[in-house]
């Protein structure tokens, strides 16, 4: 059985994503890593913890988990308009199973390559399986996208179809037998693609942004609160994928798009005059509503009548799941 230091050397320090890179002055092996950020940029930092049995099934394949854990973290950089630089990995493992570790690092590697992010350190401990990733990104001074700038009159937009990951959950959990057309949903759940290009394109254009992790309505609530505005979501404009509609049916697909978690698609507010320019850049933009004076998140039908959503989203320690 590998000791802690052999394990770190063999699986993590040796990984391609842990080798020398621009902006990383010192990587794995010392007491700290050293990062270099140009004087006209700021460092964006975010931490996420994933716990077996809470955020993913305890028997999840290492490869899929490695991909997903990193994607979920990097998505926060996308939401701030930051360019990925580096990440650390604090890993708690019940045992050092070599096959699982090799699969896990392969998944991490593939997502690290996809996102252009480098492993610079971490911690390795024994205990129930959990992962904490901290990501570091670079953003030009003053251009980070926060949740606080939405203004009445802006459009409310998202960067892709909603509800796909939530639609995959019954298949992930084995509650429903696998079917051909669920594959696109499963790919979205296990390997979400952080919207890095969109986030960076939104710098200086969007007035507020975040990535949807807890469900559209719940996350829009964060923008509404931070910006001191009301967000109106027009139900008929929700982008739903063909795969989700086929697997879940139209009504459930809508519910999942509104309240299902794990999408990691960006939601943002945009002055209407910026829309054409953003689309001309080839960025995916779906207008789903608008910003008004007031507070809260309000769902409307095609005629502008208020709709009461069945469920708003996911909160740990809240009254719904967990
Ligand atoms: P310290 O005792 O000084 O905190 P550790 O012995 O925990 O250092 O780790 C030794 C080196 O290996 C450090 O540079 C640390 O960042 C790195 N490291 C430990 N675990 C991991 C991991 N899971 N992934 C990447 N780097 C790791
Ligand atoms: Mg340590």
UniProtKB/TrEMBL annotation:
Q: What else is known?
A: Reaction mechanism of ThiL seems to utilize a direct, inline transfer of the gamma-phosphate of ATP to TMP rather than a phosphorylated enzyme intermediate.
Q: What is this protein's gene name?
A: thiL
Q: Where does this protein hold Mg(2+) 1?
A: 47-48, 123
Which sequence ranges form a coiled-coil region, renumbered to this chain?
none
Q: Which HAMAP family match?
A: TMP_kinase
Ranges for domain PurM-like N-terminal come to: 29-139
Positions binding Mg(2+) 5 in this chain are: 214
Q: What is the lineage of its organism?
A: Bacteria, Pseudomonadati, Pseudomonadota, Gammaproteobacteria, Pseudomonadales
Residues the entry annotates as binding Mg(2+) 4:
31, 46, 76
SUPFAM superfamilies assigned to the protein according to its UniProt record, in alphabetical order: PurM C-terminal domain-like, PurM N-terminal domain-like
Q: Write out the residues that bind Mg(2+) 2.
A: 48, 76
Q: Which residues take part in binding ATP?
A: 122-123, 147, 213
The text of the family note is: Belongs to the thiamine-monophosphate kinase family.
Say which domain of life the source belongs to.
Bacteria
- Which molecular-function annotation in GO is an example for this chain? ATP binding
> Under which name does UniProt file this protein?
Thiamine-monophosphate kinase
Q: What is its EC number?
A: 2.7.4.16
One GO-annotated biological process of the protein? thiamine diphosphate biosynthetic process
Q: Which organism is it from?
A: Phytopseudomonas flavescens
Residues the entry annotates as binding substrate: 55, 262, 314
């Amino acid at each position: 059985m590998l000791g802690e230091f052999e394990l770190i050397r063999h699986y993590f320090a040796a990984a391609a994503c842990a080798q020398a890179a621009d902006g990383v002055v010192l990587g794995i092996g010392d007491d700290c890593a050293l990062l270099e950020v140009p004087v006209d940029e700021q460092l964006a930092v975010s931490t996420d913890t994933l716990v077996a049995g809470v955020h993913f099934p305890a028997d999840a394949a290492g490869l899929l988990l490695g991909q997903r854990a990193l994607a979920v973290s990097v998505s926060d950089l996308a939401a701030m308009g930051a360019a990925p630089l580096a990440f650390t990995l604090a890993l708690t493992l019940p045992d050092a199973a070599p096959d699982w570790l090799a699969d896990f690092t392969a998944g991490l590697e593939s997502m690290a390559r996809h996102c252009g992010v480098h492993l610079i350190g971490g911690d390795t401990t024994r205990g129930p399986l959990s992962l904490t990733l901290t990501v570091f990104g670079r953003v030009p001074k003053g251009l980070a996208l926060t949740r606080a700038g939405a203004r009445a009159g802006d459009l409310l937009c998202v960067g892709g179809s909603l509800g796909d990951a939530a639609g995959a959950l019954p298949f992930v959990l084995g509650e429903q037998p696998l079917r051909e057309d669920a594959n696109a949903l499963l790919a979205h759940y296990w390997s979400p693609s952080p919207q890095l290009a969109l986030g960076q394109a939104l710098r200086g254009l969007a007035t507020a942004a975040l990535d949807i992790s807890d469900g559209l309505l719940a996350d829009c609530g964060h923008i509404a609160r931070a910006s001191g505005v009301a967000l109106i979501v027009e139900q008929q404009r929700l982008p739903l994928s063909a795969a989700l509609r086929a697997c879940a049916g139209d009504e459930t697909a809508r519910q999942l798009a509104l309240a299902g978690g794990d999408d990691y698609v960006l939601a943002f507010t945009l002055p209407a005059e910026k829309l054409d320019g953003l689309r001309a850049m080839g960025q995916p933009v779906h207008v789903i509503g608008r910003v008004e004076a007031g507070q809260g998140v309000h769902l409307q039908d095609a005629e502008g009548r208020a709709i009461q959503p069945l469920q708003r989203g996911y909160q740990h320690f809240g009254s719904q799941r967990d």
